[in-house]
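Quick log. Single chain, no ligands specified.
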Amino acid sequence: MHQPIRSSFKQMMNEVVAYGSCCECGSCVLVCPHNVIEYVDGKPKQTAKASAPHDFCGISEGIGCDVCAQVCPRLYPREFQLAEQVFRDDPPPYEGIFGKYRRIVAARSTDTEVQRRCQDGGVVTTLIAWGFEQGIFDGAAVSVRDPEKPAHPKPALLTSRDQVLDSAGSWYTYCPNNLALEEAEAKGCEKVVFVGVPCQVTPVRKMQQADPAYLDNGRKKEKHIERQSKFLKGFGARVNLTVGLLCTEVFTYEGLMVEKIEREMGIPLTEVEKFNVKGKVLIYKKGGELIEMPLKRAQEYARPECHHCGDFTGEVADISCGGVGSMEWTIVILRSSRGEELFDRLVADGRVETRSMDEFENSMKIMLRLAKRQHERVPVPPAREPHWVRPDFAAPEDRPAEPEWARA
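-> predicted structure:
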């Protein structure tokens, strides 16, 4: 693996934001120690000095900082390189086109209330609720319904089972879940489960893996080093489990929800209970009515930023979950030993039931195809060294052979 490259604020603002690959996770704004940038219209914007260029940071060019750039998911190391660091001390036995892993199973919640509210098998909802009951988690950074904007999510820090049940489901428009970690700090939560799509899990892992030693450059006062180190590492240190949601792309709220669904299809967003995507868009109205839309029509409103993402399955998460190719079941990829341990305890407590992936051959085929396609679609930005692109997968000789169904 290449030696760590210290990306700069200037690079982030030019090669990510101006270039158009910023995923809008908000992590750079979250960790900025000096209030140089703010989250404006979904993007980081330099607001410390209005008369200065968009890529100017006086701290970066003065005493040095660039904490923001170290957590950006679009800068080196990318997710497929970061996995080597994340799993360095406890490497999973298998590695495939969808990353490193220990086991893959299909699972479903045994809680009827969760089944009624959840997306697919309800595994993530059940895991979080159980984790609160067991004292494993004291907070959950997720997305919830925005009460002021129908069919739209907002980031939130949950602290109870009831809140978890109310947040079940997905909306398929982007929500900067990472910003919920600011609330975790405000509430003093130190055992947070973070749930997000791959481009949101990656910055959390970069916070956890970052080495703050580079901040001591011989030009700073100790208080500056302490402040920058706290912001670089502090939010990630509060997270004790990461759950990645399988994701190819999400859609713009104004395009898909407002223009297409509400105006063209005549479905008031206040009447929408939840969404799902299974080769087509499934719109569930309050009262039980189901309306279907061809996926190609929805993809007209896909965010262009998503096409810069090479990670379909959340390759650096402890556990990755998604309903790919299956109805009422969640495909669960167990990656870290901690993720596997908690999932096994969840099963032992009877909270979820599992099935072998031998029964979900179609789901595996879809997951392999989408993971491969997503790896190959990422463009190399101008002036960027090409080494960050994911190399072709070749299994190390000392790794056990993968199960037949997991091979591309």
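The two ends are 24 Å apart (CA to CA).
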